[in-house]
From TrEMBL:
SUPFAM superfamilies: Citrate synthase. One of its GO terms (biological process) is carbohydrate metabolic process. It comes from the Eukaryota. This is Citrate synthase. The lineage of its organism: Eukaryota, Metazoa, Ecdysozoa, Arthropoda, Hexapoda.
């Protein structure tokens, strides 16, 4: 009952059947309308994708297989010595739709630690990259290079059947999740410490513990923070840039390594995952200018200046959410519990008070509230992980959990190659004229 692939096998056939019936009965049901503004506006509001693992409510935030973040924090298994949910648990939940038992999660920790083995050529390639290549670009390259190990690609060449796609995808996803902390650690240790990575993984410990250890952090507080962080960033439905890129590239039957590296290239953008780095850069400039303990008015003035100079206030706003991101709240609660008097946390809390009205006053920003990235860097800084251009790599390791669970399901459901219709402006004008 702990073998995840067997658990999944029992779900796949039933789900295929359910969807077949649904499509037969309602396949022609109209889901919505598409306007010209939506087409020029980044496809906001177009319901055009099927993505099973999570769903975003504009006011409530994300739900993972129906569970809100506080519910997940409550019900997901913890480490024997910890209070925070284990990311292994959310992977089990996203993939199967069932909340895992402690035993399930221990099985998964062991399984990932057993599969952790980075191919020698990947290590060599990372070691040969110049040090000024951004950690996210290194991460993308490292993941893509692991494609040499793809069981999915091999299976395809050897003629696996369509019904077997998801099983091969599952094997690659498990190997990839097992190896992501190693790839990240090699990049971190080389980039910041000029050190080789000791690749030993403790098979009696969880994924986050081993990840922390690989990059030289053994403070139990840091490990707990990482467990929460890796759980919170795992998934945010299917239309965001990283999830959508994985889904799109995967639909061409590129193997999971290639599909995931495409998603990570998207996460590396400043309007998406790089925002957590941008927040810290922005906060550091604030501190430089105003000192460690600025007043409310000073912080408000800093936000106004940022807007006046035509820049975005990083960590605020969202394409879909219209309230404070519950992932922000969850990190805030962690900070409140562990380091309520940390000066940087106090600045971030003051921002939460003063920034939304300033953003709202512009009249054009749809969501003046903070998103996940407004808080995560502060947690890292407190525990001494100060290298901010590495932060998006942590985000990426976590994001793998959701987008790769979804990828397995896309293959299980036999979703076809993605190919929406595009139009030229002239063709659109013609369409309007002839209507
Ligand atoms: N600061 C300044 N201006 C902002 C803003 C912010 N935080 N958020 C939105 N705006 C501006 C937009 O740039 C846009 O201006 P324009 O009309 O002159 O081009 C206008 O407000 C309307 O934008 P919107 O409809 O509210 O947002 P969007 O869906 O176009 O973009 C997002 C969403 C997240 C890219 C945007 O809010 C932003 O740039 N935020 C800062 C960066 C950030 O925190 N990104 C992380 C998001 C979460 C994640 O993916 N990790």
């Amino acid at each position: 009952k702990n073998d995840l692939k067997q658990v999944l096998k029992s779900k796949v056939a039933a789900e295929q059947e359910r969807i077949k019936k649904f499509r037969k009965e309602h396949g022609k049901f109209k889901v919505g309308e598409i306007t010209i503004d939506m087409m020029y506006g980044g496809m906001r509001g177009i319901k055009g994708l099927v993505y099973e693992t999570s769903l975003l409510d504009t006011n409530e935030g994300i739900r993972f297989r129906g569970l809100s973040i506080p519910e997940c924090n409550e019900v997901l298994p913890k480490a024997p010595e910890g209070c925070e949910p284990l990311p292994e648990g959310i992977f089990w939940l996203l993939l199967t739709g069932d909340c895992p038992t402690e035993e399930n999660v221990r099985w998964l920790s062991k399984e990932w630690s057993k599969r952790a083995k980075l191919p020698a050529h990947v290590l060599q390639m990372l070691e040969n990259l110049p040090k000024d290549v951004h950690p996210m670009a290194q991460f993308v390259a490292g993941i893509a290079a692991c494609s040499s190990e793809s069981k999915f690609a091999k299976g395809y060449t050897e003629g696996m059947t369509k019904a077997q796609y998801w099983e091969y995808a599952y094997e690659d996803v498990m190997d990839l999740l097992a190896n992501l902390p190693l790839i990240a650690a090699v990049i971190y240790n080389r980039f910041y410490k000029n050190e080789e990575t000791c690749m030993k993984v403790d098979t009696s410990k969880d994924w986050s513990y081993n990840f922390a250890k690989l990059i030289g952090f053994d403070d139990p507080g840091f490990v707990e923070m990482l467990r929460l962080y890796l759980t919170l960033h795992c998934d945010h439905e299917g239309g965001n840039v990283s999830a959508h890129a994985v889904h799109l590239v995967g639909s061409a039957l590129s193997d999971p390594y290639l599909a995931f590296s495409a998603g990570m290239a998207g996460l590396a953008g400043p309007l998406h995952g790089l925002a957590n780095q941008e927040v810290l850069v922005w906060l550091s400039k604030l501190k430089q200018k105003l000192g460690e303990s600025p007043s409310e008015d000073q912080i408000k003035g800093y936000v106004e200046e940022t807007l006046k100079s035509g820049q975005v206030v990083p960590g605020y706003g969202h394409a879909v959410l219209r309230k404070t991101d519950p992932r922000y709240i969850s990190q805030k609660e962690f900070a409140e519990k562990h380091f309520p008097d940390y000066p940087l946390y106090k600045i971030v809390s003051t921002l939460y008070k003063v920034a939304p009205p300033v953003l709202q006053a512009t009249g054009k920003i749809q969501n003046p509230w903070p998103n996940v990235d407004a808080h995560s860097g502060v947690l890292m800084q407190y525990y001494g992980l100060t290298q901010m251009n590495f932060y998006t790599v942590f985000f990426g390791v976590s994001r793998a959990i959701g987008v790769l669970s979804a990828l397995i399901w896309s293959r299980a459901l036999g979703l076809p190659i993605e190919r929406p219709k595009s139009m030229t402006t002239d063709a659109l004008m013609e369409l309007v004229k002839s209507s």
